[in-house]
## 1
Amino acid sequence: MSLKGAAYIAGAYEHPTRKAPDKSVAMLHAECAIGALADAGLSKSDVDGYFCAGDAPGMGPLSMVDYLNLKVRHMDATDIGGSSYLLHVAHAAEAIAAGRCNVALITLSGRPRSEGMATGTTPRAGNTAQPDVQFEYPYGPTVVNVYAMCAQRHMYEFGTTSEQLAWIKVAASHHAQWNEHAMLRDVVTVEDVVNSPVVASPLHRLDCCVISDGGGALVVVKPEIAASLKRPKVKIIGMGEAPKGQMGGNVDLTYSGARFSGAAAFEMAGVKPADVKYASIYDSFTITVLMQLEDLGFCEKGKGGKFVADGNLISGVGKLPFNTDGGGLCNNHPANRGGITKVIEAVRQLRGEAHPKVQVANCDLALAHGTGGLLGTRHGSATLIMERE
Amino acid sequence: MAYQQRKIPFAGTIDSNPETKPFFEACAAGKLVLPHCGACGKAHWYPRGVCPHCMSQNLSWKDASGQGTVYSFSVMKRAPVPYAIAYVTLAEGPTMLTNIVDCDLDSIRIGQKVALRFVPTEDGPPLPMFTPA
């Protein structure tokens, strides 16, 4: 049975805060839930499925279901880092198709900025029962330097340059200037990026995403419910998920799990990368975007640097408008997990509700993709393809 | 830039995961050993009790040559003491996460030949790192 068209995204909400020292993580989850349900035109009593990941406080979904006092008959707390929420949309569609729920609520929230977390630059020990920790933590893996090793190898194999990577940040900044909630609204140049301090070679400060408090929520519903609501209909037509690791020591940093999750999503949807009008591409770092674009098939492997250069990702300028909210690079990366905001901006584009300066004309087919965990050690990939009906 | 050795933390104890205790005991004796599979013949990394290539548990520890090639690296500039994290592909096949030490960090290149160098840790056995050969 194909899951194509099994469910619709009826509600999407991005919390406007970027710094929330006065609110708990649970409260932020709740405010996002309220926002997404209001956006859909649904209420608390309609929700019969709940999804969350590692950012939710407590044990899996139990604490948040109790906090919100939901009555659900289906729950899922699969955690694949920042890509979890794209996977949750897919799993919600599966659950809806199987009759396990009708209205699935997905929430994310966190406060790394208020809590002063050195998100990208501090090695985290973790639990030594995690089997890689004793063989990796002593060597100082941070978020930035593990992604940076992917960039270094990409440059070596394919001749990619720092200037090409910088174009990704430049494009994100062109979009963020129109987003009143974005953390970084100044338009930057390639020179600004390559002249910013190196954090972990070859990545500069402006190759990295922001650290922000906040969150988001989504409501996924069965077709009959979508038809009864007043919102434009966003149909889920393709989905894919894939983990990628070190393969027993056969480390290959030249590609990501998007190679597999993207192929599965395009096959289900029956469309090609060239058909996609708008793409939300996970942008923890500029290199993340470059590798995902190649692995999703928007350009040949190794040609990503050329593809992103000269404004090709800028809405109204290039061939593939991406992250028109400013993305994680300039707008928001709540809880250090950018997957949900990727879906939210894709929904805005498909509804025609993006900022007029960045709205893609006749945007009837969009893709959202996430990479969670660490691209250079072990990561999750999840891809969604959505259509406006 | 003159090389400065940062302090290396150890995670847990040598028997946090009992099946890899022999690896850390070998480190304490100044030897790098690799798990080799008696079923499929392959070495693997990171060490574990099950062969990740074929799921056999017929594994044995063999001395590594200590020779390798830099697969990729990054110099962590924003740190109290800058350091170079790297993936080094060992002569025996597997690629391991490690550090490149005792050299000008700005001179490190992908494809460079490197050799084993044990570096002391704060609260555990010395660990295998590499320096230009």
## 2
Amino acid sequence: MDYNTLIVLVGLVSAGLLLGSFGALVSLRGENLTADVAGHGVVSGVVLSQGVIVWFGLGTWLAEPVLWVLGFTSSALILCFIFFLRWRGYSVGASQALAIALAYGSSLVLLSIVQATGAFSTKGLTLLLLGDAATLTLGKVLPALMLLLVWGLAFLLLRRALHDWVLDRHASGLAGLQSRLDLVWAVATVALVLSALPALGLTLLVGMLTLPALIVRPWVTSFSGLVLGSALIGGVVSGLAGWLSAGVLPLPTGALVVVSLGAVWALGSLAAGLRRKGVPAR
Amino acid sequence: MNALSNLLMITDRNVSLSVDEAIRVSGLRVGYGGAPVVDDVSIGVNRGERLAVIGANGAGKSTLLKGMLGLIRPETGSATFLDRPFWAVRQHLAFVAQADETDWDFPSRVRDLVAMGRGVHLGLTGRLGAEDWRAVGAALERLNIADLAARPLSELSGGQRRRVLLARALAQDPQIMLLDEPFQAIDAATREALITVLDDFQAEGKTALIVHHNLGEVRSLFDRVALLDGTVTALDTPDAVLASDAFERAFGISAR
């Protein structure tokens, strides 16, 4: 296996482990669409970062840090907008719809401005939306690896509090946990989206956040089992799809990852259905 | 201040448990953005007392409880517990919401849900120790559900769910419990088990405020009754409230 293929596989497996495990929390809280909105919130910052690099003549070594800072800021602002709307009494669905409309609108306006100056190409937009695992470099993979380490440690430390926070908002709110974990969740969502963007692109992220947890859910009865199982499924399927894409099937890697997960989910649902039929009624 | 206190998890460890009044609600107005659901609510509950909040459907009983606890932000007014705001005494105060507000398909087991009651004593990163698990075991025993400890939540019946939620509150070892319709849709055995637990709780000098819907039981179960109809229209002994004009106006029936 050559160095480039190894980097691609490491990037994909890291993204799969991260998105799979974190997606279990997102799914249990029913916040998949909020994570999707956070993903779309990144676009404005990413587009703007390309403009900033060109307009201010910044060195290419600054491209990644600027992209991270502006992408993080724009996504965090969109998430704040969602929380503000909910605080004002808007329903979850309405606040998500309003936020995604704002994210799309501001992204397109910024895109027009930045593209008019030649600082951002159509190819750049395609990469942003669909990702390109084949172009992964160590620099692009490192954020996901570091985040994986931080998330693993955080899960070990906060497992009980996260269980309570996801299971019962009222109870965790009364225990004084909710505000702090909401904040951790919002920051982690944005960081995760940014770290997985180069490998999977924006449109595939929400699938990666949702499918592993859906695959594992019928087979586990514990919170830790769901999070770890989702991580495992996300990591293994991403790695396999990346390996297939590199050698056997010349297809876009991100799309292959999500389609593979979809196939595993369909087979798993079928098997879970058959298993349920074999269990006597309680 | 509430949001900041929640964020920083400020808790007053020196709260006095010897105050006479356990709960004080003053001029509380709570709503969902439009017209208030409850307005100008003022109630005092003494230590060791069991008070029922009754009212017709839509009278604002559940909203009042959530407003008192800050789960819905009150527009005006305040609620204090043991003479302190909620965030300062959170470890002494348990809330049992209606069973349908919990996700019973969540991949977890009964003992883990009951152990949530200990979370308020542990903070964000604390781990359950031997003492915590003893409290969880004792709570399960008191509700006669120790045999359900390892059962997945999705396999519980309606009555078992009620017991599990009350066990979680007891595991917290609170001084005050707020319960939202704990007797709704349960069998006779579960009802007896809940009443025994509430009697023991009161015998320990602890306070319970309970939203209750069965008007036929208020005389036997409660010391006092608050009749809610957007605001408190009667607050007295069960006999006095059931005989009041306010009761007749609220329910359209007479219990005299």
